[in-house]
Structures are given as C-alpha cells and as structure tokens.
Amino acid sequence: MLGLWKTWKALEAKGIMGINRRNADYVLKYNKRHLYPIVDDKIITKERAIEAGIHVPEMYGVISTEKEIDKLHEIIGGRTDFVIKPAQGAGGDGILVIADRFEERYKTVSGKIISHEEIEHQISSILTGLYSLGGHRDRALIEYRVTPDQIFKSISYEGVPDIRIIVLKGYPVMAMLRLPTRQSGGKANLHQGAIGVGVDLATGVTLSGTWLNNKIKKHPDTTNAVDGVQLPNWHGFMKLAAGCYELCGLGYIGVDMVLDQEKGPLILELNARPGLNIQIANDCGLTHRAHAVEARLAELEAKGVQEDAEERVRFTQELFGHAHPAER
Fold this sequence. Notes:
Layout: H1 2-13, H2 19-30, H3 36-40, H4 42-51, E1 59-63, H5 72-76, E2 82-86, E3 96-102, E4 105-108, E5 113-114, H6 116-127, E6 140-143, E7 162-168, E8 171-179, E9 195-199, E10 206-211, E11 214-216, H7 234-248, E12 252-260, E13 264-271, H8 278-282, H9 287-303, H10 309-320
InterPro entries: ATP-grasp, ATP_grasp_subdomain_1, RimK-rel_E_lig, RimK-rel_E_lig_ATP-grasp
Protein name: Alpha-L-glutamate ligase
GO molecular function: ATP binding; metal ion binding; ribosomal S6-glutamic acid ligase activity
C-alpha cells in the first residue's frame, strides 16, 4: 500500500493527469454538452472547417440510409483510392482505406483484395451504428485518401501518420506524432498498436516514443529511429490547432492532423475526450501545463484582453518547448 502511495505521489509531482482529473477539471468544465456534435460527428466537423477556410480531406459523398448505398458507384466514380469512415466512429474502428483497384475489385492499404459488395456490407454495418459512439445509427463518409509526406517513409509502416495536439482554451499544450505499425494494421491508433512519439512544441522535432505503453527509440518495423525528426511546417500545425478553439467552441480538445504530400497540413478530426497516453510519449504530465495556461487566462482576464491564435502559440512554445525547459 505504501508503494502505491509513493507511486501516486511521484506521478502527481510530475504533473501526470489521470482520467478522473481530465474528466472533472477539463472535459466537464470546458466542454459544453450541446457543442459535442460538432466534434463527435466527422461530417459536421468537416463542414464547419470548410466554412472557416480550414483545410480538410475532400469529402466525396455521404451515405445516410441503406437505400443510398446504391449511390456508392456514383460517389466513387473513376477514383482508384478513397477512405470510408463512420461519421461518429471512435478509435479508428470501422474505417476502410482503399489504396487501389484490381480489375473489378479493390485493394486495401494492407494489400487485401475485396469486392464492391464487401464495401457495401461495410457501409451497411456503419449505418447500423456498429462503430458509433453509443451504438446509435450513423452515416458513412467517403473522402480523399491522404498520401503521407515523404518524411514519414522511414518511420512509418503503411497507413497515414497523424499529429495530435491537445488544446486548452485555444492554447496548444502537448503534441504527439502517431505512427502506424504492422501490429496496428497501418492505422495510427495507439490502442491498436501504433507508436506515439512526443513532439517538442517549440521546434516540431520528435522526441522518444511509446509503443504498447513501453518506451522505444526505434520503429519496430522499419528499425529506424523515431526521435530527432524535424516535422515540416510545424508552426502551421500549431496555429491550425490553436484556431480549432474558435472553430468548435470546446475548451479542451485533441486536434488530429495529417501532412499530405500534395495538400500540406489537413485537419482530420477533433476529439472532446482526448486520451492521456500523450503524456507517456512526452515523458511529461499535462497538469502543470494546463495550470500554467489557466493562470495565463486569469491574468489576461484581469487585464480585459484576449490573445489571438498566433499569440497563444507563441506563449506555449516559449513556456513548454524543450528549448525552454523551465517547466521540467
């Protein structure tokens, strides 16, 4: 019992945020319930982002009912690659990534050959709510398949790496690069076996990684080092994440973004209940950083001023970047 208490105190001293604190002090406090549909439904998120001039993967079409499944041929057209997602899915479940065509069939990103009927069956499963939050009926989204920037070629296995930034009241507080592995089936989801790699907020240089809750320095499939990689256009990612506060109105979110080879930074989705493994990847707790942002907000409120996205990014980069290690 004494050992558990010491462990708990050590985690608390490091500022590690647990799920109860996240829910009580941040999710419930800063995320108004009526705004959840904006982030829980990928189609609504995408439409709001487009209206705000924020770049997202192009939406080819939406299927809302079994009858509309007949529109799939029309939506796909002559495209050789595309992605099908449940609008209200979570954790990457239910996503089907088509990378190419093979005669009258389709080839998934993992190389599996499937028929048009199998794709229709997958869409039908999505509509029934098999992958949705709460098991409610859902819609299927067909969209552009992201082609990852070449910088990820040596440190990722198939799939599309993504970048998650935790944002508190518009202030980016922690970042992580998620890298697909063979075990994750080419998906960038940690609970399915992807790698989480911490990212220095100030520079966009990757730190050490975590895989299946163990610290690692090399990708298990490519064997290349995952640390020390400079992510391109890092300031653009930070500013994009900061601006999502105005986009959705939620005060505590995870912003998931990708770097497309042709289109640059794109927002994939927003998450109102972002996971906490990002702390392992960064070897740093969220609590101290969140408290620093809250202190900043209180200071600005007393002065009657607000900071724009550019100023919010500058503040957190100066305070939390590894080039400025005071918080550690």
